[in-house]
Amino acid sequence: MSSRNRKVRVWGRFRPTTNFANENIEILNDSKSVNVHLRRDPKKGVVNNQILDWSFKLDGIFNNADQEVVYNTVASDIVSSALDGYNGTLMCYGQTGAGKTFTMTGATESYRHRGLIPRAISQLFRQIEDRLEYSITVRVSYMEIYNEGMFDLLGQLPDAAWSSATSGNRDLFPTPDPMVVTENQDGVFVKGLSCHLAQNEEEALNLLFEGETNRSIAAHQLNKQSSRSHCIFTVYLESRSRTQSNAKYTVSKLNFVDLAGSERLSKTKSEGKTKEEAMYINKSLSFLEQVVIALASRSREHVPFRQSKLTHYLKDSIGGNCNTLLIANMWGDRPQIEETVSTMRFATRMMCVASEPCINEVYDPALLVKKLQREIQHLKSELAMHDTLTNRSMISYDPLSEQQKYEIRTQVQRYLDGSLDEIDIVNLRQIVGTFETFKDMYNDMEREMETRLREKYMLVDKTDPASIAAAQQAGVPIADDGSMVGELEGGSYGLGQAPKAMKADSSAAVQLKKKERERERKRGSRGQTSPVAGQKPSSSPSHSAKGERKVESPTTPAEKEPRPDVDGSASPVSSAGNVSRQEKSQRASTPPSRTSAFEEFKTDRGSEINRILIENKEILASKKKTYSELAGHINGTKNAIDQTRQTLEKLRIQREADGPILNEDGDIIISEEEFLEIQRLKDLKTNYRTKYDELHNLKSEITYCQKLVDQCRLRLIQEFDNWYSESFLTSADENQTSLGVGHGVRPGVVVPITSLATEDEQEKFERLQLELMMNTPESAAFYNAQMRTSRRKTYGAAMSQPQPAYRRKPGTPVMSVRNQPPGMMQVQY
Ligand SMILES: Nc1ncnc2c1ncn2[C@@H]1O[C@H](COP(=O)(O)OP(=O)(O)OP(=O)(O)O)[C@@H](O)[C@H]1O
C-alpha cells in the first residue's frame, strides 16, 4: 500500500496521561481529526489576534495506543516494501518528552514496549527467512547530529567499516576527520559513517542497543532522559535473486529518525549547556520546517536542504521516491497545549509533501558484462547458422588473428607495389583490417620519410622564429624572414643541407642573392616577366640548394627568343610527340596557366577528342532524359495499380456485405464493374513489367555511355597533360608545378584524376541516384529534386575551387574501347 501513496503519511500520537486536557483537546470519532481550543493568554493583553480554535486532520491519531498497534498500523507495510526495493523513512517529531524515543526505540528493557526499530528488525529478518529465493544483505548504521556536529554511534565497534575516514569529533569518539554529508547519483550518504553487517535479528539489535548507549542524553525539566540530539538509525538492504543470474538487483534503505524535542526556552527556562543544545535543536527543527514547507509548495523551485546537517542528510528521505511516515508525538496535558498545536501544524504541513515511491534497481557491472558476453556468443552462433544456410560460411565475426593480419598486410603491400591487381573482399572485418593496414603503412612511411630527411637535411619551420634562430645558431645560412640562401620562394618549410655542408660564407651568399635579383630586374626591364597577371616572377632555379634544376639562364639563346603567345594565336605544338624549337623556348619563361592552356588545347590539338567527348555527353544526357521520363511513366502506372487495388478491395467488401451470389457450380459471381477493374489491373501490371524491363535496359546503356564519357575525358586530360609537360615544362618544372599549383597538395601526392573536372563527381553522384531509382521507381521525384540541389552545390563548389593541378598519374594505363554501344560515338585511339 505504501508504494502507492502520493503524500507523506502522518499520524499523531498522544503520550498517555492522567491529566488529558479534555476540555481543550477533542479527538473526533474518525480517529483522524482533532479540535484544539486554546484559552486566551492574558499576558498578551486584552486585544490580540491569537487564534484560539484549531482543527487538524491527520491520517490517524493514536491515543493510549499500544506499541504493537502503532507498529502494525503505520510501519509494517513500509518495512515490507523495503525488502521489495523501496526506500522508507519513519520519523518522530514533537515536543521534548512527548514520547518520540519511546515510539521509535521503545523501552529497551521491555520487549512488549519495544518500539518501531526493534519491531522492524524483527519483521525484516522474519521475512528474509521466508524469501528463500533471494539473497538479502542487511547493513546498519547509526548516527546522531548533536549541536550541528555528526557522530557515529557505532564508530567504535571493531568491525566498523567506513566509507572513508573515521568519524566524529565528540569527546566520546576522538577521530581525525569529521563526517560529511555527500550526494551522488545513488542518493545521499555520510562519508565517514561506519556501516555494519547484521546477519540476523540479534546482531542487528545489538547494533541498535550499542548505539543507544552512545546517544547524548541529559536530564531535562520535561524528560529525565531527554535526547539532546537527532538520531538516525539506518538499515541498508541489498536483495539479489538466487534463482536468476540476473545483473539487476534492488537496494533500499530504511531510515528511523528520532528527532530531538523542540522546546520553548521562555517556558522551560533551560540554562547553560541544556540551553545551548535547545537552541541548536530549535534551529535545526526550524530548518526542517522550512524544507517541509518548500516541499509542500508546488510553486517553490528551491528547497533549502543544505541549511543544516539534518535536512541535508534527509534530502532523499522526505517524500520523493521514498515511503515516508511522520509520527507527531504530543502531550495531551493542558500546560503543553501550545506546543501540541505547534506540533499539529508541522504535521499538517508534512501531509502536503508529495511522495512517489519507486523501486531502486541497480545493475551489477560484472554480471552485466557476463550477461552481454553470453548474448554476444549467442548472436554469433545465430549468425554463423544463418551464414551457413545462405552459403556464406567464409564470414567470421571473431577478431582478426595475427596470421590473418599478416596476410592482409602482405596483400596490401603487393597491391601497393603493383604485383596484385585487386584485394579480394571477404568480409567486413577484413575490409576494416585492410584500411587499418593502409593507415599503419602510411604512417610508417611518413615517419620513415621524415627520419631520412632529418638524417640528411636540417628542417626549418619558416614560420617559427625559434626554429629559425636554432638553425642560424647551427650555422645554417638563413635570413631572419626564414628564406634560405639560394632557396625557391613559396614553401613554408626550408630544406637546407646539414650544418657541415652548409657552412658557406653568408656574405657571399647574400651577394649571390643580390646578383640574382639584379638579373631578374634587368630581365623585367626587357619585358620578359611572367605574362600571367599576379604571378610571381620565376625565381632562379639554378640557385636552388641542391643545384639540380636545369632551367636555362637568362643569357642562353633560348631565353633570348621571343616568348610564344599563350592565348593560342600560335600553336605551340607542331605534331604529337614532336616539340618544336619554338615550343622548347617556352620553357625559358613562366608557363601559361593550365586553365587557359587547357581551353586552348580543347580548341586546337585536342579538338577532335573534345568533340567526341561533347557528342558522347549529349547522347548520355538524352538517354538520361528518356530514363527520367520512363521512370515517371512507371510511377504513374504504379499509382494506377494502387488505386485499382483499392477500388477492387472496396468492391470486394461491398460484395461480401451484400452476400455472395453463386452460380450452379457454387462459384462466386462478381459484378461487371469488378470484372473490368480486375482486367484493368492485369493490363497495368503487364505495362509496368514491360516498362520496368525497358528501364532496366536503358540503365545498362546509361552506365555504358557514362563509362565512355569518362574514358573520353580521361583521354583528353592525359593528352593535354602530355602536351603541356612537353611544351612548357622541364622535369624540374613538373616537380615544382605539382608541388605548387594544387593548393593543399602534398609533395609527391598525385591529384586524383576525378578531381580534375568537377562534373566527374556530379555525374558519379547522378549515376548512384539512378541506381537507387532503379530499385524504387516511385522515388524518382525525390531523387530528382536531390540531384538538382546537388548540381547547384557542385556548381557553386566548382566555381570556388582553386586551379587544379593537371598531372598525369605515373603508370596510368591507356584506355581503349572495345565494344561500341548503339548510337554512341567511339573514341578512336
Ligand atoms: N506512549 C507511551 N507509553 C508509555 N510511556 C510513554 C509513552 N510515551 C512516552 N512515554 C514515556 O515518557 C517518557 C519520555 O518519553 P521519550 O523519552 O520517548 O520522550 P521524547 O519525546 O523522546 O523526549 P526527548 O525529546 O526529550 O528525547 C519516557 O519515560 C517514556 O517511557
TrEMBL record:
Essential for normal male fertility and for progressive motility of spermatozoa. It comes from the Eukaryota. PROSITE patterns: KINESIN_MOTOR_1 (PS00411), KINESIN_MOTOR_2 (PS50067). This is Kinesin-like protein. Residues 7-353 form the Kinesin motor domain. InterPro entries: KIF6/9_C (IPR056524), Kinesin-like_fam (IPR027640), Kinesin_motor_CS (IPR019821), Kinesin_motor_dom (IPR001752), Kinesin_motor_dom_sf (IPR036961), P-loop_NTPase (IPR027417). GO terms for molecular function: ATP binding; microtubule binding; microtubule motor activity. One of its GO terms (cellular component) is microtubule. It holds the Pfam family KIF9. ATP binds at residues 94-101. Residues 496-603, 795-829 are annotated as: Disordered. Residues 526-543, 571-580, 587-596 have a biased composition (Polar residues). Interacts with HYDIN. It comes from Elysia crispata (lettuce slug). Its main location: cytoplasm. It is found in: Cytoplasm, Cytoskeleton, Flagellum axoneme. SUPFAM superfamilies: P-loop containing nucleoside triphosphate hydrolases. Residues 545-566 have a biased composition (Basic and acidic residues). Keywords: ATP-binding, Cell projection, Cilium, Coiled coil, Cytoplasm, Cytoskeleton, Flagellum, Microtubule, Motor protein, Nucleotide-binding, Phosphoprotein. Belongs to the TRAFAC class myosin-kinesin ATPase superfamily. Kinesin family.
